[in-house]
Amino acid sequence: MTAIWTAPKTWNIGELVTADALNQHVRNNLEYLVNQPVVGTYQSSGAAYTTTSTSDVLVNSSLSLSVPITLGRALVFCSFRATVSNPSFVFSVITLYVDGNAGNLLTMHSGTAYTSLLFPVTGLSAGTHTFDIRWRLTSGGYSASLWRGIEYPLSFWVMEM
Question: What residue numbers bound the domain in which 7 lies?
Answer without folding.
Answer: 1-35
